[in-house]
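Below is a filled-in request sheet from our internal design queue. Each sheet records the structural input a requester submitted and the sequence that came back. We keep these sheets so that new team members can see what a complete request looks like end to end.

REQUESTER: design group, bay 2
PRIORITY: normal
MODE: inverse folding
CHAIN LENGTH: 318
BACKBONE (tokenized):
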């Protein structure tokens, strides 16, 4: 099945002056020390998958508090390599597959300064395609209750509902089904029917891990045919459940034709990824190690077959 990105080239975006990953898989795990660019790669893929959506651009700026700057143009320029110090009228961010002559590009146009929010007038985005791919970003803190409820409504009463329930069984084997309860316009709470209980219980009462997996499962189901991006995928999931988590991600991403990009700070998560990849018959995994030398980031990609020889000494995660 075709991937949105079989390779990735990023130019002039935040940490990356020029950066390439020559080979990507259907399920990609990005590892490396803090500030090695893992989350920046997720942002770049979001921008590419969204066809340069201005809403995604604003969301990224907001996540870094850049929109609090007094000068709108300076806020947008924070995206560029070297920030405002190295920005010129010719500066351009380019994101796309390696060798592509049709990347998504972002430029800043100087217009009279104001204190209004950043507008498309100041950030000019050029995309070679008008239609974005379906994509979901899951932050280290997971989905908000409102987003989770909205995604549930989109897949409820479809074949994907059972897939979501099956993922929750990783944490609690007696989960039979779930639903979101609450009045329209108010916060809706995920509830679970357990085989061991007569009455539904709040899903949160089963622990943080089950809520994290719910967010991943809902996002994976909704991103069908597109891209799922998960920052710090292991958050809230006990190491003993991570191999099962990865096996489900491999199975569903293949069946739903979804490309997955995830980051981790955990060696346990890397080991679980390796073990799940070894058991996966489709050979679609890629682990990308990011190393920083002299303020430049270099990637090393490991295919599914190469993962078996990756040792703890070859991976630095903090």
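RETURNED SEQUENCE:
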């Amino acid at each position: 099945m075709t991937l949105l990105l079989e390779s990735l080239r990023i130019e002039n975006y935040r940490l990356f002056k020029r950066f390439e990953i020559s080979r990507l898989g259907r399920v990609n795990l990005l590892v490396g020390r803090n500030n090695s660019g893992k989350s920046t790669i997720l942002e770049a893929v979001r921008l590419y998958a969204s066809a340069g959506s201005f809403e995604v651009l604003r969301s990224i700026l907001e996540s870094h508090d850049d929109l609090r700057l007094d000068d709108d143009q300076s806020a947008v320029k924070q995206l560029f390599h070297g920030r405002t110090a190295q920005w010129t009228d010719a500066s351009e961010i380019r994101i796309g597959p390696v060798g592509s002559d049709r990347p998504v590009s972002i430029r800043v146009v100087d217009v009279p300064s104001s204190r209004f929010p950043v507008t498309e007038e100041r950030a000019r985005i050029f995309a070679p395609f008008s239609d974005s791919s379906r994509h979901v970003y899951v932050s280290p803190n997971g989905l908000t209750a409102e987003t989770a409820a909205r995604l549930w409504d989109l897949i409820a009463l479809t074949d994907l509902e059972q897939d979501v329930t099956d993922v929750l069984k990783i944490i609690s084997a007696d989960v039979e089904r779930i639903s979101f309860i609450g009045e329209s316009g108010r916060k809706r709470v995920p509830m679970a029917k357990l085989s061991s209980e007569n009455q539904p219980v709040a899903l949160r009462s089963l622990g943080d891990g089950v809520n994290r997996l719910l967010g991943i499962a809902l996002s994976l189901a909704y991103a069908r045919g597109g891209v799922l991006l998960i920052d710090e995928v292991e958050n809230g999931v006990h190491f003993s459940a991570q191999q099962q988590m990865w096996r489900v991600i491999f199975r569903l991403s293949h069946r739903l034709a979804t490309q997955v990009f995830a980051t981790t700070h955990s060696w346990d998560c890397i080991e679980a990824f390796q073990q799940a990849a070894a058991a996966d018959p489709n050979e679609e995994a890629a682990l990308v190690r990011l190393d920083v030398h002299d303020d430049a980031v270099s990637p090393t990609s490991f295919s599914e077959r190469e993962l078996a020889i990756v040792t703890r000494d070859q991976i630095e995660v903090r």
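SHEET NOTES:
- The first strand starts at residue 8 and ends at 13.
- The two ends are 34 Å apart (CA to CA).
FILED BY: M.R.
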